[in-house]
Predict the 3D structure of the following.
Amino acid sequence: MTKAPESSLFYSRSPYKEAFDIEFPNEQLPGEMYKYRCKYCKVLTTDINGLLENHKDGCEYKVLKMLQRSDSAGK
Ligand SMILES: [Zn+2]
């Protein structure tokens, strides 16, 4: 009986860290190790580039953020 080798779990951390704000829910592209996209509008995080404006119109996250912004900016 041979011992099964410990499976490596060292890749649980993102291979790179974005310097900008990416608090929107994102998901990994199927089959693409290093590509992520917005869960709602499916725009690549590299295309969004940390800017809310780069989300598609109608993106759930964008709409929500816009509401929050006008909420705190208004009055
Ligand atoms: Zn989006």
